[in-house]
Each structure stands twice: as C-alpha cells, then as structure tokens.
Write a structure and sequence with these properties.
Largest sheet: 6 strands, mixed
Helix content: 40-55%
Distance between the termini: 75 Å
Shape: globular
CATH class of the largest domain: Alpha Beta
Low-confidence stretches: 251-268, 353-366
Strand order of the largest sheet: 3-2-1-4-6-5
Structural class: alpha+beta
CATH architecture of the largest domain: 3-Layer(aba) Sandwich
Mean pLDDT: 85
CATH superfamily of the largest domain: HUPs
Number of strands: 21
Radius of gyration: 26 Å
Length: 497
C-alpha cells in the first residue's frame, strides 16, 4: 500500500507538473494526518527532485491540545531533518476584532503567515494538504449554497504560489500509508463539532449519499475537475474579449475619489467596453467579463487592499438588466463603485456621494400605513423605495429587509426617518455582530478610507442608526431569515442636476 501510494503521488506530481525540480517549498503542517502524510511523502521524493523543504505551523490557540500539537510538529520535523517555523496568534480575539468567523479568520491569518515566511525565506511555493475528501465536502457545500460553474470547481490543485498535491487521495488512503510507516499524527477534535457546516456535510450528508453511490467522493472530485476545465475555457474566452475590446480612459475629471485626483497627464484611470460588443456575448462569457471589469476597477482604486467584496449572483443579474438601460444610467456596486453608461460605453468608476453642509430633515410619517412610498433626497442624490414584502430577502449593499413591527413602534413614538452624516459617539450593533461598537471602529475595520467616511449616508430612526447604507444594518431592526411580512428598503442614486 505504501509503495503504491508513493508511486501514485510521484506520478501525479509529474503528470500535473505541480512541483518542478529544485523547487524551494514551504509545507503547511498542522499535525493532522493529512499534513503529516504530505510532509512525509515530500521527504521521500525530495532527493530525486532536489527539493528544498521548510515547514510552517500556526498555533491558533483555539484548542486545549494546541501546545501538544506544536510539540508533536517540532519532534516530527526534527526527526525528518527539516526546518520548522512557528507562530502563535489569538485567532478568536482577532476574529472578533475583524468581524470574521473563526474559520475565516484562521484561514486569513494562516495564509498571511505562510506568505510572509515564503518571502522572508526566499521560497517559491506553499504546499497545503487538501484531500479528495476536502474537495468532495467543498463541492457539496457550494452546491447547497447555489454556486455557479466557477464555484463548482471548488479547490484547485494549483493557484499561483499555492499547490495542493494531495487532491487525488482520500484521508483513509493517507492514514493507511502513515500506519504502514509506523507514523502517528495528532487528532483534531474540532473535526467532530456537531454544528459546523463542514462537519454536518462530513458526518451526515456524505454518509447518506454513499447509500446511493459508494464512490461519491470520486464522483464529486470528477465533477469539480470537469467544472474547472469548462470554467477555464469560458474564462479564457472572456479574457480574450476583454483584452481585445477594452478602451483606456485617460482622464477622470468628473469627481475625486479618496486620494485619486483628476489626472490631465494621460495616466490610465479605468477602462470602457462598447455596449454593441458586449451584447454579442453569450451570458456565461459576459458574466466573466463583468467580473474582469470589476476586478480591474478594484486594482485601480484599491491597489493595496486585499479584503474587498466580490460580485455575487444578484450583482450579475443586475448587470444583465443594466445592459438594456440608456446612456447616463448608473448601477451601484460593492466597495463604493458604480457601473455607468457613457456614450454607449460601459465603465466602472468610483461612486461618490457629495457632502451637504445643511441636510434637510426629510421625513416619512406613518410609514407602515402608506406603503409603498418613495423618498427622494437631493442633498444625497438618493432615492429610497419603501415597500412591504411577504418574506425577507438576503441583505445586499443597497437593499435590506427590516422588521416592520420594530420600526412602527418608534414611528408611533413620534420618531422620524432621517438621512445624515456620521457623528462623534455614534454606536450600533452591525448585523451578525455580537454587540454594539463605535461606528468609527466599524468603518476602520472594513477598510473604508478616512476621506470617504464622512460621505457615507446613514439612515436613522430618531437617534438610532438603522442602516449604514452600502455597508451594514443595525441588528435590532433587521428582519430574521425567512421572516414573513417585512419592510423592504432599496436605494438608488439619482442623476445629479
């Protein structure tokens, strides 16, 4: 078994060209069976490929046996004769500060540690121990969440500097290999937590699917690989269209954004695409062109910020509808960007809300009884649409669903809806958060540039913040998932006079 698996591993590396000879590798080691098997296998073929191997272990301080895992990794690396780099971080506290889940915070700081080590040690690739089981679980979770073709591809064997050489192998195969070598590993008890989404898929959904197909892991891995191949073809077609048709915009003279000043020197400040050519594309290719346009805009306006919101299915649908609108129309997008038609050219540019020194106190009284209504604020160039829906929708940057009964309680007390700038001492509980926090800190945490913080419209009911428009609603007002009878608010930006 061990020789067979080692041969398969070697063949996989050669066929997929995952690791070149003389590569300088950083291996992520948790102490679990998967990462232990990866390091052991790489050590077996290191001489024939002339590999340089260094190892990284991050202590998340989430489990009582974390120190035992660290000691195990130290002994294991010492026995193999490889250099181990370790770091300890309070992931739980960092997750709370950054408003991230524990899983997401662990991933963000783990990969930041790996990339820093890679640069410091002049290494070339980072290897992680994702397996066929991880791939199958990821595919199922993506399907449950309604993914598209790109998401269905799930985990890739190589993404730039990241290499995942164990995707063809199951956890049980790797453990059998380690047993044949007399090699132990650490057991991660968080793999058995009953409420984690991945754990539910692993211990409940996959066993049910095995009743229909006992090779379900292989089937899901083939599905992911097929999706990757098809998506790659569509992406290459979209990239070719984008390269061949994009037109550089050499000036931005209609506003300023953050520290970006109108540039008369001919520097490229964005790209445009002709409407007539966009219409010739299949929707599946056009969707990827939308994403390329959006990513290009992020690179131009947020060149040093890695934590930016991406486009989701609702944005792609809105962009398809936007394709039919006349020149001058605008569509708000995440991260203070907007799509606009100018001269039948599609452009993504910064969205800038002009400040007003004297905000009028525009009010909607007895709102619940008058729905649907619209509220136009020329001070903010905003149009707010209020209506009643039968069931809550997922919150979006420019639309939310509120609990109408909580809103009506304050309206009956004489409180009024207003739009205003932020004020010193503003506090609210962001939706999904665990408690109230200062608005200033929230805007800092989500990386809003300081020059933009006073330009964000805030919807209030009386003195209470209801919604930081474009960002997050207050938890107490937000409707619950699938709540019946909700107050729906949608924001649109008006044309400037």
């Amino acid at each position: 078994m061990s020789k067979n698996l080692l041969d398969r591993f070697r063949t996989h590396l050669y066929e997929r060209r995952l690791i070149a000879s003389f590569s300088r590798c950083l291996v992520a080691l948790s102490g679990g069976s998967d990462s232990v098997a990866l390091l052991y296998l790489l050590r077996e073929i290191a001489r024939e490929l002339n590999l340089t191997i260094e190892v990284a272990h991050l202590n998340h301080n989430l489990r009582t046996q974390a120190e035992e895992d660290l000691l195990f990794c130290q002994r294991f690396c010492q026995n193999l004769g490889v250099n181990l780099h370790t770091r300890s971080l309070p992931i739980k506290e960092l997750a709370q500060e950054q408003k991230l889940s524990l899983e997401e915070a662990g991933r963000v700081y783990r990969y930041a540690f790996f990339r820093q080590l890679k640069e410091e040690r002049n290494l070339q690739i980072i290897l992680t121990a994702h397996t066929a089981d991880d791939q199958a679980e990821t595919v199922l979770m993506r399907i449950i969440n309604g993914t598209g073709l790109a998401g269905l591809g799930a985990i890739k064997a190589r993404e730039g500097e990241l290499v995942r050489p164990l995707l063809p192998f199951t956890k049980e195969e790797l453990r059998s290999y380690l047993r044949s070598k007399g090699q132990v590993w650490c057991e991660d008890h968080t793999n058995y937590l009953p409420d984690a989404p991945r754990t539910k898929v692993r211990w409940h959904l996959l066993p049910l699917l095995r009743d229909w197909n006992n090779q379900i892991v292989d089937s899901l891995n083939r599905l992911a690989e097929s999706a990757q191949e098809d998506n790659q073809l569509l992406l290459e077609m979209a990239e070719k269209f984008y390269r061949d048709n994009k037109e550089a915009i050499n000036r931005i003279d209609y506003y300023q954004f953050c520290n970006l000043v109108s540039n008369n020197g001919g520097a490229i400040c964005g790209y445009a695409l002709p409407r007539v050519r966009l219409r010739t594309l299949y929707p599946s290719i056009r969707k990827r062109v939308w994403l390329l346009c959006y990513q290009e805009a992020l690179n131009i306006y947020y060149p040093h910020n890695l934590r930016m919101s991406s486009l989701e299915s609702c944005h792609y649908k809105s962009l398809e509808d936007f394709l039919q609108l006349p020149n001058g129309k605008k569509l708000p997008l995440p991260n203070f960007l907007q799509a606009v038609w100018r001269g039948d050219k599609f452009i993504i540019e910064p969205l800038c809300v002009e400040q007003s020194a004297n905000l009028q106190e525009e009010v909607i009284n007895s709102l619940i009884e008058k729905l649907p209504v619209t509220w136009e604020s020329r001070d903010w160039n905003l149009l707010l649409k209020f209506e009643r829906l039968s069931i809550s929708q997922r919150p979006e940057p420019f639309s939310i669903c509120l609990d109408p009964y909580k809103v009506n309680e304050l309206l009956k007390e004489g409180k009024k809806f207003t739009l205003r700038h932020r004020k010193d001492g503003d506090r609210f509980q962001p939706a999904g958060g665990t408690g109230k926090q200062k608005l200033k800190k929230f805007l800092q945490d989500i990386k809003i540039p300081q020059s933009m913080r006073d330009q964000i419209p805030i919807l209030c009911l009386g003195e209470e913040i209801v919604w930081i428009i474009g960002q997050r609603a207050e938890q107490k007002f937000l409707a619950k998932p699938k709540q019946e009878d909700v107050l729906y608010i949608k924001v649109e930006y008006l044309e400037k006079d």
